[in-house]
Amino acid sequence: MQNDSRTRVITVDEPEQVAGKRVLVVGDGPTLTHGGMSYGAGTIAAQKFGAAEILPGRNSAAGSIADAFAQYPHLADKIPALGYSPQQLAGLEATLNASDADLVLYSTPPDLAS
Asked: Are 23 and 101 in contact (CB under 8 A)?
């Protein structure tokens, strides 16, 4: 196989945490919104590592996240990480807290845990 600089390896720190779980995927905001993608690395990782189900983020969307689903209908059900202002952070937090997911799988440059 030729070396292709566009190829990326998708990994998670603890793949056993994903297997069999109902997962809420949070993806890179710019990629999913104005970038036009309906899924990203988080969706691929959830599938690759055996998530039982990828939950629809639209069902728990609040605040700025709900607004993003309205503005970007191509999002399907993946949550874009919008957290550039206190209002956006509050919307993201409310969305994550309203979900009944077993695991939140985020594939974003910023660390959402902090």
From this structure: yes
